[in-house]
Amino acid sequence: MNTDYLTTDELAARIKYDARTIRERLKDSVLLEGVHYIRPFGGRKILYLWEAIEKDMAAASSANAFGVPMANGGRMHG
Can you give the residue range of the structural domain that contains 36? Predict the structure, then answer.
């Protein structure tokens, strides 16, 4: 199994987000433990799984590709 494990700072550089945004806003709301990140050996350190994050980012992007953006953040499909 060939998986890229990234620290918060490495992930931030790769997706062009601030590391603090990842820690405070994305972790546990968008990025889920066991799916997008792990805590090796039950410790405090977090390692992000690049392949899972990349797959979900692409899926979310293609899901929003169709439709007209609305002021409330939603999309009108039709």
Answer: 5-60
8-44 CB burial, b ≥16 within 10 A, e <16: beebbeebeeeeeebeeebbeeebeeeebbeeeeeee
**pLDDT at site 54:** 94
Q: Can you give the pTM of this predicted structure?
A: 0.74
Residue 76 belongs to some domain of the structure: no
Q: Looking at the 3D structure of the chain, how many domains does it have? A: 1
Average pLDDT over residues 48-59: 93
Residue 4 CA to residue 33 CA, distance in Å, equals: 16
